[in-house]
Write a structure and sequence with these properties.
Layout: E1 10-13, E2 18-22, H1 27-36, E3 39-40, H2 53-59, H3 66-69, E4 76-82, E5 88-91, H4 102-108, E6 117-124, E7 126-127, E8 131-139, H5 142-154, E9 161-166, H6 167-177, E10 187-195, H7 197-213, E11 218-221, H8 225-236, H9 238-242, E12 248-251, E13 254-255, H10 261-275, E14 279-284, E15 289-296, H11 301-320, H12 339-343, H13 345-358
The protein binds flavin-adenine dinucleotide.
Length: 374
């Protein structure tokens, strides 16, 4: 086991608009340091107050803002990493991201620690948006919310966040926070726009109109920073609020094409009935990334027996709708058995050759991501 948490140095080069950070730097600390210099580091996984830049790069983390700004990979300009044989490499130019070894730096992004141990990174920063506004829309049912997501994406606005929560998620958050969310709502969208103040006003008004046209029962635009923070708090506490519904949860992470979100959610709700589990759905709907969570009781053998078949049915639904096994959390050990189904033998063989080249003795994260060679 390798702990990198003390490699937490953060240096902001405001002229070059780059952050040079240790792999153990906490994501939220990098964001705060960038914002103190008037700059912006967009990737914002909901785990940002505890996740590290090394982990974010290893999993190519996303988050609500990634719909507009891209994922961690889009911000990696250079990496320092230790290879399996102990060689220390520095790949990427750390400047504009066009140098001859940038491709090698990107190869490590999303490799989940199976190719090298990342120790440092140079991350692209951008100008901090001057204004932001969040609008919440409550719908009677999930279908109306999902078709509103489609309308928004087709309307040419690119929100800086477009988050979906289903009825059970809303009720759980309300029970936890007591901030006045209607606990009988069928679905909720949180829609964030940012940029120049005039454009933000126009985009927020258009989003509110689109939500009303999509059948929203209630639309509320944040009036100030406190309102704004409360709305996002509702999204950020989802994981913890759900643990009060049932003692355990299997948090899933699939992606489907935007026009398939409604079909996918309908299929997940069917799976919930077939396997007799509450399965809640929330996620970054603007990029089709859904987090179905199976709520169960780990002490009950009846529950644990049905758990994996239910999870498999969700993975199968995502793949059948043209989606992916993982949107942002990665493959790890959980989804490893499904990799061959998702990628096919030829692509798996290519990845196995890359792994064998980097790590012939399988020292790095053995048993993760790739199935055994067949
Ligand atoms: C409540 C909650 C909310 C989450 N929300 C999101 C979200 O919105 N978006 C999202 O993308 N993810 C999310 N995640 C998943 C996870 O937090 C992120 O993927 C994060 O990037 C992991 O970072 P970490 O530092 O916690 O890594 P760890 O969990 O410690 O490690 C993750 C993997 O990366 C490898 N790794 C870690 N550091 C390095 C390194 N320096 N070099 C090589 N390999 C390394 C580890 O071996 C492991 O395989 C969430 C998780 C939780 C618990």
């Amino acid at each position: 086991m390798i702990g990198l948490n003390r490699m937490e140095q953060i240096t902001i080069d405001a002229t070059q608009m780059v952050a040079h950070v240790g792999a153990g730097a906490v994501t939220a600390d990098v964001q705060t340091a960038a914002e103190r210099a008037g700059l912006f580091y967009p990737p914002d996984p909901s785990s940002q107050t505890v996740s590290t830049i090394g982990g974010n790069i290893a999993c190519n983390a996303g988050g609500p803002r990634c719909l507009k700004y891209g994922v961690t990979a889009d911000y990696v300009l250079a990496l320092t990493a230790v290879l399996a044989d102990g060689t220390i490499v520095r790949w990427g130019d750390g400047l504009a991201g066009q140098g001859p070894t940038n491709g090698l730096a990107q190869l490590l992004v999303g490799s989940e620690g199976t190719l090298a141990v990342i120790t440092e990174a140079s991350l692209r920063l951008i100008a901090k948006p001057a204004a932001r506004r969040t609008t919440m829309a409550i719908f009677a049912d999930l279908d109306a919310a999902c078709s509103t997501v489609e309308r928004i994406m087709a309307a040419g606005i690119v929100p800086a966040g477009l988050e979906l929560m289903d009825d059970t998620t809303i009720a759980a958050v309300e029970a936890f926070l007591k901030i006045g969310l209607p606990s009988d709502a069928g679905a909720m969208l949180l829609m964030l726009v940012d940029g120049e103040p005039e454009q933000v006003d126009a985009d927020a008004a258009q989003l509110a109109d689109l939500a009303r046209a999509g059948g929203a029962l209630r639309v509320q635009t944040a009036r100030d920073a406190v309102d704004e923070a409360n709305l996002w708090k509702a999204r950020r506490v989802v994981s913890i609020a759900l643990t009060r519904v049932r003692p355990n949860r299997l948090g899933e992470d699939i992606s489907v094409p935007i026009p398939q979100i409604a079909a996918c959610v309908r299929r997940i709700k069917q799976i919930s009935l077939e396997y007799n589990f509450p399965i809640v759905v929330y996620g970054h709907a603007g990029d089709g990334n859904l987090h179905p969570n199976i709520l169960f009781d780990g002490r009950d053998p009846n529950d644990t027996e049905r758990l994996w078949p239910a999870a498999e049915a969700i993975f199968a639904a995502a793949l059948a709708l043209g989606g992916t096994l993982s949107g942002e959390h990665g493959i790890g050990t959980l989804k490893r058995p499904f990799m061959r189904h998702a990628l096919g033998d030829d692509l798996i063989a290519v990845q196995q050759r890359i792994k064998a080249h980097f790590d012939p003795q399988t020292l790095l994260n053995p048993g993760k991501v790739l199935p055994e060679a067949s």
